[in-house]
Each structure stands twice: as C-alpha cells, then as structure tokens.
C-alpha cells in the first residue's frame, strides 16, 4: 500500500508527498481507512509509529471550514508533544487553508485568547490549559467534529483524568473520537465506554523488539574530515551488493551521492525533495539491482521492504536508538544474515555505546580497511572479470597485439594494463593508512597555567604509557592545548590520562574535531 491508494484529499496527499513519505506505517494503514469511514477508534501503539500523521491526515481531509467554531481538538500530555503535533499538522496541511493553534501552560494566555477570538479550525493543547481557556469562555468546543486524545495513558499518569472528563463533557455527542495510547489501563476503557460511539474499533500495533538478532553489527572510528574516505575504504574492501547508506539530512545525502558518483560508484539518493514518481522509480532500480548503493534519510527509507539488502551503513548516526534499530532492520530479513556498519567519530562513540545498551546489541569495533585489504578485494574482482572476458572469446586481435610486444616487456605491459584497470575500480585516491596516522587531542590546560611542552610530554608518557615517538606536534594556547598522537594509542591515552594532574592541576582530555 502507498499513500495515494488511501482516500485522503489531494491537498493532504500533496503535503504527505512533500514530507517524503511513500508508504504508510502499520498504524496508518489500519487507522486511516477506519477514520475515513467515520468510526471512533482506540489505537494502541508506541511513540514514533506515525500516529500524528494517521489522525492528522484524516482530520485535514474531512474538516469542514467554519470561521465561527473550532472544528477539532487534540489533547496531548506535554507542551513538547503538543508543539510537535502542531508542527506536523502544519506540514501535512501545507496545501490546505486550515488554521491551527497550540495552547499550553507557561505561555501567554492573553495572546492565545486573542488568536482564538480571530478564529481557528484546530486546537492542539495540554488538558490544563485547554480547560482554563474553556472556563474563561475563550475556547468553545461545543461544535467540534473531531476529538483526539494522544498518549492517553501518559495523561492519566500525570493526573489529568478529571480535566479530560471535564473537557469531554463540553463536547457534542456526534463528534468523531480517536484515542491513542501505548498501554491500555482500565481508565481508558472507561473513557471509551462513556464518551465514544458504542461500535468503536480497537487497533493494536505490536511494539518492535529493540534488538536485531539476524544482523551482525560493527563500527569504525574515524575523524569528521575522513568520514567519506572511510566509507570508500569500506566499500572498496568488501564485495557489497545492494547496500543501504543512511545520512541524517537531505543535504548530507546529496553531498555523499555527488561524491560517490564522481568516483564512479553506482549510487542514487532517496529523500523528501524528490517527487513521488522519482522515489518509486529509484526504489525499483535499487530492488532490481540496477542501483548498487542507495543513500537515504530516515524519513525517506520508511516503508522500504526489500528482503535481500545485504548491508546497511550508518554514514551518520541517527538521533534516536529506535531509528538505529529501524535502519539496521532493513537488512537481515527473512531469517537471512545481514551486516550493519556505523562510521563514528571519537565523540560519537559514547552515544553508540548508549544505543548498544538500549537496543540490547553487541556492536564490535573494526579497524578501518587499509590499502592492502582494498588491493586484495579489488584485484580479486578484477581477475574474475578478466576470466569472464576470456570465456567470451574473440580475443585474436589482442593476442596479435601482444605478439608485437617484445617478450622482455610483456610482463611490464600486462602489469601496467592491470594497474590501469585496478585504478578505474577504486573509488578514492587513498593515502596510506597505517599506524602513523594521528588523532588530535584537546587538553584543558594552557600557558596561563605555566605549563610547557616538556610537561605535556612527561604527562602523556607517565599516565598514557606511550613512547615519545607516539607523540606528534604539541600546540599550547593560553587556556588549552592541542596534541597530535598516533591513532593506535590515542584511546588508551584518553582513558588513562583523563582527570590526572599536570603541575597540580587536573586535566580533562577529549578528541578534537578541529
């Protein structure tokens, strides 16, 4: 199913397309047709499953414009969630002319009252502030056609049950009601029996387990300015067919795809700025193997259902652990083994450890592939291609050409031709990666603390347990110091030296991105 198959208004479908969605989530697939049919419903689903778009798309498709009365009321437990709902409604309704207001405690109630007086179609708010506005006769909900309670169990946990009931008593009986909750306590069933239509429908979406047992997970540590080279090293050192690469933003996706295409990788982008036909065609090309690397945002990749994606690469880490599971879950389908790689900086390593703990995952560290590993893989691929070409035959002209070359030079000529073919297949002009590569450390001590280069060296040797040859350039500023140190020992230095003293002053060390 795609969104265009749902009977939503053309304006709403255009808004959803602009947001970058193609495929509805399970809660959207089940609830949208039901709500469009005029049924009350309870949806049991976790946060982040797409509930706002589920009820918001239907409300904005069916609302009748009335400048005199509020038409829809959406209750939310917190101001943050209320603001998120309002923001998503504005994006869904970008091509409609409905007016929305978000009301919550701690904000200017006078301004909210003046805005309501001018006329709005949809009110999103927290129960306390909504009830306050009703009691001040600034908000009239006696004629609403829609009532939504989002995160209902959270509102009950926060003690809003009486406020919710007082609000519901001010609404008309013939309204349509949707209630969403992660759990189903008895109070919610009581609300349903008292304030919803007798034939309301119950929908349950099972929470995804926060683990991915069929996916082997690994990470590489690099620096910001070497992130793309690290990606190329991964791609060039492995036989990777149908690989999904994730970035956080549309801009990052476009930059990565442009750089990959410049280096002759078969890559295409998938994000919200592409039209729906473009996105569908890109997915088809990826599915049938005409595109080897698909670089996507989290939003655009939602709903991808291709069973034989062999690899997922987190070029940039997601902001939430649930998104991490969603990403790596694109591989390892149908009980097949999948592999997920994450490219992280030293500063991001701690966040990756949090993700691993929360998702019950084991994420193993790997060394960034060196030039020898890349040569082994690419030369093997090259020899297989040459073997296939030999089997096709029709090489007589080339054999005659070979006979014209003196025997003493034939090996050199063959090696030169292999080198040319090899260089065409390698995506990056690699600098040699070995133990001499360096990381840059930041120390919270400087010249104002009367510290000198010899003090820094002695400190690193004593606590970091490194040799003088492991330490590179040292730059002492007034309040802080930069030290270049071999990558092979930088982690032990950060761990061993953290919070130790130089000249009686405790020093904090961290990786510098400069």
Description:
With 514 residues, the protein is of the alpha/beta class. Helix content is 43%, strand content 18%. The protein has a 7-stranded parallel beta sheet with strand order 3-4-2-5-6-1-7, sandwiched between helices.
Essential attributes:
alpha/beta, 514 residues, single chain, 7-stranded parallel beta sheet, 20 helices, 18% strand
Question: What is the mean pLDDT?
Answer: 87
**Unreliable spans:** none
Portion of residues within helices: 40-55%
Approximate strand percentage: 15-25%
* CA-based gyration radius: 30 Å
Please report the total strand number as a whole number: 20
What's the arrangement of strands in the largest beta sheet?
A: 3-4-2-5-6-1-7
Structural category is: alpha/beta
Number of helices: 20
Task: Describe the main β-sheet briefly.
Answer: 7 strands, parallel
Which outline best applies? globular
**Ends distance:** 47 Å
Strand and helix map with partners:
Elements: H1 10-19, H2 26-36, E1 41-44, H3 51-62, E2 72-75, H4 79-92, E3 100-103, H5 109-118, E4 122-125, H6 127-135, E5 146-149, H7 152-157, H8 161-168, E6 176-181, H9 186-195, E7 201-204, E8 215-222, H10 227-236, E9 243-246, H11 250-262, E10 267-270, H12 276-287, E11 293-296, H13 298-301, E12 311-314, H14 321-328, E13 338-345, H15 349-358, E14 363-365, H16 371-392, H17 396-403, H18 407-425, E15 438-443, H19 453-464, E16 471-476, E17 481-486, H20 487-497, E18 501-502, E19 505-506, E20 509-511
Parallel strand pairs: 1-6, 1-7, 2-4, 2-5, 3-4, 5-6, 8-13, 8-14, 9-11, 9-12, 10-11, 12-13
Antiparallel strand pairs: 15-17, 15-20, 16-17, 18-19
Helix pairs in contact: 2-3, 3-4, 6-8, 16-18, 19-20
């Amino acid at each position: 199913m795609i969104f265009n198959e749902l009977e939503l208004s053309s304006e709403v479908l255009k808004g959803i397309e602009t947001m970058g969605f193609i495929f509805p989530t399970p809660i959207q697939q089940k609830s949208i047709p039901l709500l469009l049919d005029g049924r009350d419903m309870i949806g049991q689903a976790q946060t982040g499953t797409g509930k706002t778009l589920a009820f918001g798309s239907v409300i904005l498709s069916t609302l009748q414009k009335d400048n005199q009365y509020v038409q829809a009321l959406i209750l939310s437990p917190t101001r943050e969630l209320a603001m998120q709902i309002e923001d998503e409604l504005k994006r869904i309704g970008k091509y409609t002319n409905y007016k929305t207001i978000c009301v919550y405690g701690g904000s200017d109630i006078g301004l909210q009252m003046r805005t309501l007086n001018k006329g709005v179609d949809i009110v999103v708010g927290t129960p306390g502030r909504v009830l306050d506005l009703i009691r001040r006769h600034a908000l009239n909900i006696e004629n609403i056609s829609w009532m939504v309670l989002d995160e209902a169990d959270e509102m009950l946990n926060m003690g809003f049950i009486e406020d919710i009931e007082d609000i519901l008593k001010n609404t008309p009986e013939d309204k349509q009601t949707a209630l969403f909750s992660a759990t189903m306590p008895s109070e919610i069933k009581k609300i349903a029996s008292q304030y919803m239509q007798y034939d309301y429908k119950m929908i349950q979406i099972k929470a995804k387990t926060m683990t991915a047992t069929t996916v082997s997970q690994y990470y590489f540590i690099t620096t910001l300015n070497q992130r793309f080279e690290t990606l190329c090293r991964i791609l060039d050192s492995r036989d990777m067919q149908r690989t999904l690469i994730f970035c956080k933003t549309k801009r990052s996706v476009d930059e990565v795809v442009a750089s990959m295409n410049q280096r002759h990788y078969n890559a295409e982008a998938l994000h919200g700025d592409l039209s729906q036909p473009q996105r569908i065609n890109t997915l088809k090309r990826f599915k049938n193997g005409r595109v080897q690397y698909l670089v996507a945002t989290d939003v655009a990749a939602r709903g991808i259902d291709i069973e034989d994606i062999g690899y997922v690469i987190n070029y940039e880490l997601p902001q939430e652990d649930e998104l991490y599971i969603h990403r790596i879950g694109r591989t390892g389908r149908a009980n097949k083994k999948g592999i997920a790689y994450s490219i992280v900086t030293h500063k991001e390593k701690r966040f990756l450890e949090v993700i691993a703990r929360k998702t019950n995952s084991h994420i193993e560290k790997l060394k960034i592939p060196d030039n020898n590993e890349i040569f082994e893989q690419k030369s093997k691929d090259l020899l297989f291609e040459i073997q296939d070409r030999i089997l096709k035959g029709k090489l007589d002209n080339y054999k005659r050409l070979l006979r014209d070359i003196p025997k003493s030079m034939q090996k050199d000529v063959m090696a030169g031709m292999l080198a040319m073919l090899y260089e065409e297949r390698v995506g990056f002009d690699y600098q040699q990666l070995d133990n001499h590569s360096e990381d840059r450390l930041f120390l919270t001590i400087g010249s104002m603390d009367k510290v000198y280069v010899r003090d820094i060296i002695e400190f690193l040797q004593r606590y970091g347990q490194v040799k003088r040859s492991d330490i590179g350039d040292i730059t002492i500023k007034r309040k802080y110091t930069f030290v270049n140190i071999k990558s092979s020992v930088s982690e032990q230095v950060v761990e061993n030296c953290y919070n130790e003293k130089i000249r009686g002053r405790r020093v904090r060390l961290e990786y510098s991105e400069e």
